[in-house]
Amino acid sequence: MSTKEIHGLFADEEVLKASAKALVKKGVHIKDVFSPFPIHGIDPIIGVPPTRLHIAGFIYGLVGMSLALFMFWFTLIMDWPMNIGGKPNFSLLENLPAFIPVTFEMTVFCAAHGMAVTYFIRNTIYPGKKNWNPDLRTTDDKFLIQIDLGENSVSVEEIEAILKETGAEEITQK
Amino acid sequence: MDYTFKSSTKQLTLGLIGIGVLALVYAVLTHIPGQRIWANLLVNSYYFVGIGLMGTLWMAIQYASEAGWSSGFKRVPEAVSQYLLVGGPILLVVLFAGSHSLGLHHLYHWMDPELMNPESSHYDSIISGKSAYLNEPFFYLRSVLYIVIWVLFTIYFRKSSLKEEIEGGVAIHKKNYGYAAAFLVFYGVTSSTSSWDWIMSIDTHWFSTLFGWYNFSTFFVTGITMFALITIDLKRKGYMEHINQEHIQDLGKFMFGASVFWGYLWFSQFMLIWYANIPEEVTYFQDRWKNYSFVWGALPILNLVLPMLILMDKAAKRNFSIMTMAGVIIVGGHWLDVFQMIMPGTVKADWGIGVLEIGLFLGFLGLFLFVVHNALSKAPLVAKNHPYLDEAKHHHV
Q: What is the pTM of this model?
């Protein structure tokens, strides 16, 4: 079986970061990094593009806000005009302060749930999913760099040499 | 690198103070009613004391929470807090001018003894019922105590910081922790009571339990905005090379969050009163809606909607020009906020934003900036012996 992936295992996230920097400098493309906790500042090193989740969140919030205002307009103004604390009915605008708290809640509700669901879909996480973690020790106290050879033109020997030089504890081929 | 208070900057701030004095002279010569002049003095002295106090509060929060990221620009809030030493006495002068014996102004309607006299035709049973708290001796005692104790804490924090600069070590840092905690407790109580005394008592019949927090949020957001504006200005002049976009972005987050916090409190205070529609409460907003609808309506746009939309994006918080623009909107918007807290109860419909208002604001701004730049030039801009300075240098969002 020919080698498809190289895994470099590290004991410290700072060492991993330095190693990743050295690899990228040599033109190696890193497929992914596995870690028990988020490593600060690793994203730009391995070339993960900035997340657009917050933009989606803003849009979900706007949708929630519109939904709530439409609901108020339809149920309390248009379909069945309600007397709200003696305020003029037949007007969404003049009763707006009374609607703001629930509108706010709907905005937060839609933004939060929309973002969570988007996150699950983008990462293909669902109940019963098998983990794709190459080494279970990275859920405990180890850190791992995963390099896909199909995406790289740098030779296996050279990659292994860099990994070894920069302090990898274990180098495995798969 | 130490900051030098250039003579061009000095002339600019002194020029602003000159504009303020000229505006005052102009107002007296053109026979603008004294009540309006004094009300404007109260607006500006209260506004800038609130910002100065935020410098002290900020330092206390950083010491008590052992924050590291902010130590890189700690001289800025420290310099802002030094305004209390000048602005505190000015505010006291404005307050004492209104006492019944001096009678230079009548901003505090409840100081009229006739209101407390059941025999008098002016007898006001509601105000009379509040006389255990709202009476002149107690009012002035409280006012003096607030300012003196705030100033003492400010002097202590400044002194200890300058001592740390020379001596180093962590002994001073550890001692600051206790003083900061004590100040936070004192501030927690007095930030509310001072706003009741100085501002809420103008509309004597009316009260709001949210008023103290509402005032606190106004100064919290304005104070932090001032730190951001001054830090950006120093960076533009080539100082503070260790402060980068990461720190400015965090200040931007504070501006964003505190603006939303202000909006939350402002709306909570308004909505409950609007909804309940009880005559003794709702008059407060009726005055504002009738005579100040433009100012009052601009508040949520200037202080909530615009900062929120402008500062929402990460790139915007890292862009110095956008941050400056948002900062100017916030500083102006919250000045208007303080303006509409004081004016309707003191000058009723007889108000305006003219030479007097703008001139006096610029005058106080000049004084504030003079004190801040003077304080900045007195100490090295980098607090080299702060135990967490290294953390600030490597701050990464």
A: 0.90
